[in-house]
Amino acid sequence: MDIIRKYILKDLTLKILSLILAAMLWFAISYIGESKMSISVQVSTDNLSKNYIVKKMDTEDVLVTINGPVLILKNLRARDIKVSVDLSNVNEGRHIFNLKRSDIRVPKGINVENIKPDYVAIEVERALEKRLRSIVRLDKKWIGIYRIKSWYPHYINVEGSRGSLENKDSIETLLVDGQLKNEEEELDVSLDTKDMLVKRLKPETIRVILKKY
Q1: Tell me, what DSSP letter sits at residue 7?
Q2: What share of the chain is helix, strand, coil (3-state, %, to 5)?
Q3: Could you report the per-residue pLDDT of 170-204, keeping only the tens digit for each?
Q4: b or e along 26-54 (b: 16 or more beta carbons within 10 Å of the residue's beta carbon)?
Q5: Domain count across the chain
Q6: The domain spanning residue 132 has which CATH number?
């Protein structure tokens, strides 16, 4: 024990000083040391009138180069950075917005160095609300085994782009499928909107009742 105590107490001041210097170095690297990184961030839109809908955005993600303390950067995620475009004054048509460093929202202590690309093209179309007749589609493997007994509702309120809705009078469900085995099956089936630009569906699913032949 005397030997261990002697070893510990030997040059105690020097050892304490070394420990303090190591802690200061770690603090300097973690909190004061600067670094930079590039991160892909999704572009969002704000303040678009309810009478319009975003039809197309040429660039959905931009590469943002930032710098700041190492400790902050190593815990940073894409969701901590926001790149937004203000659409409060736009009308129908194609618009090009320049992205400035001041448009990028980042956590305190972080600086924006660069954005690529530094612009985004957005196409806006007038929105349309329409009542469409619902059509149920049964997967072909169940045809001859089950029949569609009933479904509800028969009409769906759809809000979307004028171009994708003005010539439509109906909307289909996704194929009705599943582990079907009972004499009568009741399912909630989603609607197929792949060829439409839709902002809102009411309701979003159809209640379908199938019955065995």
Answers
A1: H
A2: 20, 50, 25
A3: 999 999 999 999 999 999 999 999 889 999 999 99
A4: eeeeeeeeeeeeebebebebeebeeebbb
A5: 3
A6: 2.170.120.40
Q: How far apart are CA 142 and CA 156, in angstroms?
A: 25
Rounded to two decimals, what is the model's pTM? 0.69
The tokens for 170 are: 């109906």
CB atoms within 10 A of CB 5: 9
Distance CA 168, CA 159 (A): 12
How far is CA 204 from each of CA 10, 28, 69, 194, rounded to the nearest angstrom? Answer: 76, 54, 46, 14
Which structure tokens are listed for 204? 């979003």
Tokens of 182: 């009972």
Yes or no: say if 149 and 210 are a contact pair by the CB < 8 Å rule.
yes
Backbone angles phi, psi at 141, to 5 degrees: -70, -15
96-147 pLDDT, tens digit per residue, is 999 988 889 998 888 898 999 999 999 999 999 999 999 999 999 999 999 9
Distance CA 175, CA 197 (A): 20
- 133 and 106 in a single domain? The answer is no
